């Protein structure tokens, strides 16, 4: 369903998690109480449970912080603001990555930023859908152009992972790490994921769309379709409420800083920091390339960001791509 302006206004009024009467809401929106009731009935389609109590009104079962461009911009460093060509927040979109891939095919300049409150077809790795409940998490994509072609983006997902950890640590969230090549983890469970799509010339200019999904609060009912162990920042921080707009701003500060400097300094500048966040180091793991499995002990990454896997015979093999699972975990 598309989110109407009136639904957005109702959500902004109900976002505090307190009761608001039908009369109050009707007056604020300039519509009838029966129209308010019809709009509120659609909230369950967005996955937002609410309570309706006679004499008290309506209340969301969980307070909601909607993304607001002004609030995000207020958290940005001056240098970051200068790197943003546009900042959009969509109530609902099929996929922030797909949306910016379309702009990548045009002459759109670097720094186009797209957030969404929910995605109907959020993109994960290998064609999987990224579960995207409304108003709960961070769904973000950034368009950035590189002049050195595909070679200029080698290892970019690792550097982006470092940027995300930096943002979380800035908010005093330290129990987080990285799982090669592009996952954010905490206590052995997936907290977020990075998806980078690149199009353009092999040896000439190319465009990258950098997508990030980061779980703040993932309702159990919404997460039933997720096959692997997952977590969210509510669980990691012990239910301490996080300012969603501040988190969005902190993430942008770090991501755009990395993107602006990556082509000139490359992956090697991030390797040591990435290794300090590596949550696979020394772990028994299984790596899949297509459907072919490789088992062994993870020995970190090499100087180019490739995964090092030690086989049972003691030989160490480097892998440029693939999907890694902790031994015994769901793929």
By CATH, the architecture of the largest domain is named 2-Layer Sandwich
Compressed to H and E, one letter per element, the order equals HHHEEHHEHEEHEEEEHHHEEEEE
- The count of DSSP E runs of length 2 or more, i.e. the number of strands, is 14
Category by helix and strand content: alpha+beta
The figure for the number of domains is 3
What Rg is obtained from the alpha carbons, in whole angstroms?
A: 21 Å
Query: Strand portion, in percent?
Result: 25-35%
Ends distance? 32 Å
Highest-level CATH class of the largest domain: Alpha Beta
Helix percentage range: 25-40%
Mean pLDDT: 90
For the biggest β-sheet, the strand order reads 3-4-5-9-8-7-6
Show unreliable segments: none
CATH topology of the largest domain: BirA Bifunctional Protein, domain 2
Oligomer category: single chain
Q: What summary fits the major beta sheet?
A: 7 strands, mixed
What's the shape? globular
The name of the CATH superfamily of the largest domain reads: Bira Bifunctional Protein, Domain 2
- The helix tally amounts to 10
